[in-house]
Amino acid sequence: MQLLSQLKIGQPATISAIEAEELLFHRLSALGFRIGKPLSIIRRANFNGPLQVRLGTTDVILRDTEAAHIRINTHPIN
What is the pLDDT of residues 64-74, one digit of tens each? Predict the structure, then answer.
Protein backbone atom coordinates (compact mmCIF):
# COMPACT_ATOMS: atom_id res chain seq x y z
CA MET A 1 0.00 0.00 0.00
CA GLN A 2 1.07 3.54 -0.66
CA LEU A 3 -0.36 7.02 -0.23
CA LEU A 4 -2.33 8.86 -2.89
CA SER A 5 0.18 11.70 -2.63
CA GLN A 6 2.85 9.25 -3.91
CA LEU A 7 0.90 7.98 -6.93
CA LYS A 8 2.36 8.67 -10.37
CA ILE A 9 0.38 10.63 -12.93
CA GLY A 10 -1.90 8.35 -14.96
CA GLN A 11 -1.36 5.25 -12.84
CA PRO A 12 -4.66 3.61 -11.83
CA ALA A 13 -5.28 2.76 -8.17
CA THR A 14 -8.04 1.84 -5.74
CA ILE A 15 -8.67 3.45 -2.36
CA SER A 16 -7.89 0.98 0.43
CA ALA A 17 -8.20 3.25 3.51
CA ILE A 18 -8.78 6.84 4.56
CA GLU A 19 -6.82 7.68 7.69
CA ALA A 20 -7.96 11.17 8.65
CA GLU A 21 -9.61 13.00 11.52
CA GLU A 22 -13.40 13.03 11.43
CA LEU A 23 -13.86 16.41 9.74
CA LEU A 24 -11.48 15.64 6.86
CA PHE A 25 -12.84 12.09 6.58
CA HIS A 26 -16.39 13.44 6.09
CA ARG A 27 -15.19 16.06 3.60
CA LEU A 28 -13.35 13.45 1.53
CA SER A 29 -16.39 11.12 1.67
CA ALA A 30 -18.63 13.96 0.44
CA LEU A 31 -16.25 14.48 -2.49
CA GLY A 32 -16.56 10.79 -3.44
CA PHE A 33 -13.46 9.28 -1.82
CA ARG A 34 -14.60 5.87 -0.54
CA ILE A 35 -12.85 2.56 0.07
CA GLY A 36 -12.83 0.44 -3.07
CA LYS A 37 -13.29 3.39 -5.45
CA PRO A 38 -10.89 3.51 -8.43
CA LEU A 39 -8.96 6.71 -9.13
CA SER A 40 -5.95 8.20 -10.88
CA ILE A 41 -3.98 11.45 -10.79
CA ILE A 42 -4.46 13.58 -13.90
CA ARG A 43 -2.20 16.49 -13.02
CA ARG A 44 0.14 17.57 -10.24
CA ALA A 45 1.04 21.21 -9.55
CA ASN A 46 4.64 22.25 -8.94
CA PHE A 47 6.19 22.57 -5.48
CA ASN A 48 3.84 20.11 -3.71
CA GLY A 49 0.82 22.00 -5.01
CA PRO A 50 -2.65 20.51 -5.44
CA LEU A 51 -3.42 17.28 -7.30
CA GLN A 52 -6.15 16.82 -9.88
CA VAL A 53 -7.64 13.42 -9.03
CA ARG A 54 -10.10 11.59 -11.29
CA LEU A 55 -12.73 9.48 -9.50
CA GLY A 56 -14.76 7.78 -12.22
CA THR A 57 -15.99 10.70 -14.35
CA THR A 58 -15.46 13.35 -11.65
CA ASP A 59 -12.30 15.42 -11.20
CA VAL A 60 -11.44 16.68 -7.71
CA ILE A 61 -8.62 19.04 -6.69
CA LEU A 62 -6.89 17.95 -3.46
CA ARG A 63 -4.05 19.41 -1.45
CA ASP A 64 -1.01 17.17 -1.20
CA THR A 65 -1.48 17.10 2.60
CA GLU A 66 -5.06 15.80 2.17
CA ALA A 67 -3.94 13.18 -0.34
CA ALA A 68 -1.41 11.94 2.24
CA HIS A 69 -4.34 10.64 4.35
CA ILE A 70 -5.61 8.32 1.58
CA ARG A 71 -4.04 4.86 1.25
CA ILE A 72 -4.25 3.16 -2.13
CA ASN A 73 -3.46 -0.08 -3.90
CA THR A 74 -1.89 0.50 -7.31
CA HIS A 75 -2.68 -1.38 -10.50
CA PRO A 76 -0.22 -2.12 -13.30
CA ILE A 77 -0.38 0.24 -16.28
CA ASN A 78 -1.50 -1.60 -19.42
Answer: 999 999 999 99
CA angle 58, 42, 17 (to 5 degrees): 70
**In the sheet where 51-55 sits, what is the strand order?**
2-3, 70-74, 13-18, 38-44, 51-55, 58-62
Q: How far is CA 9 from CA 5, 32, 54, 77, in A?
A: 10, 19, 11, 11
**Domain at 2-74, CATH homologous superfamily:** Ferrous iron transport protein A (FeoA) (2.30.30.90)
pTM over 0.85: yes
